[in-house]
């Protein structure tokens, strides 16, 4: 599952370096769409290193969420239970085992990863 902006940024940075090397280090040689995509994902990257990304995946995977839920929570990093459930209403669907306390613990775990990122 490839959902993190930072993961995409790492891949695009690698490809950008390859292209710059092949073009003799001329930034003007990069395809415009690659340059714009790289700027976009850097702007929205919540986490800056691969270890943090792995930790986020581990934390969120404990909660048996769908890929969509993981992507939204991992990218947007809501800070409150209300914010999390408003952007991912399925967290509160009948039959789910997430109460406010479980969601708050998950959000606190994400916040701790972000603090040490």
Automatic annotation (TrEMBL):
Residues 1-117 form the RNA polymerase Rpb4/RPC9 core domain. One of its GO terms (molecular function) is nucleotide binding. It is found in: Nucleus. Keywords: DNA-directed RNA polymerase, Nucleus, Transcription. Transmembrane segments: none annotated. It comes from the Eukaryota. Belongs to the eukaryotic RPB4 RNA polymerase subunit family. This is DNA-directed RNA polymerase II subunit 4.
């Amino acid at each position: 599952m490839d959902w993190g902006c930072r993961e995409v940024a790492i891949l695009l940075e690698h490809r950008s370096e390859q292209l710059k090397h092949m073009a003799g280090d001329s930034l003007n040689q990069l395809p415009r769409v690659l340059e714009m995509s790289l700027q976009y994902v850097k702007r929205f990257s919540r986490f800056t290193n691969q270890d943090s990304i792995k930790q986020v995946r581990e934390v969120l995977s404990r909660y048996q969420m769908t890929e969509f839920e993981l992507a939204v929570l991992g990218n947007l990093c809501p800070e409150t239970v209300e914010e999390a459930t408003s952007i991912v209403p399925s967290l509160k669907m009948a039959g789910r085992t997430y109460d406010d306390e479980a969601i708050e613990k998950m959000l606190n775990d994400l916040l701790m990863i972000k603090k040490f990122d």
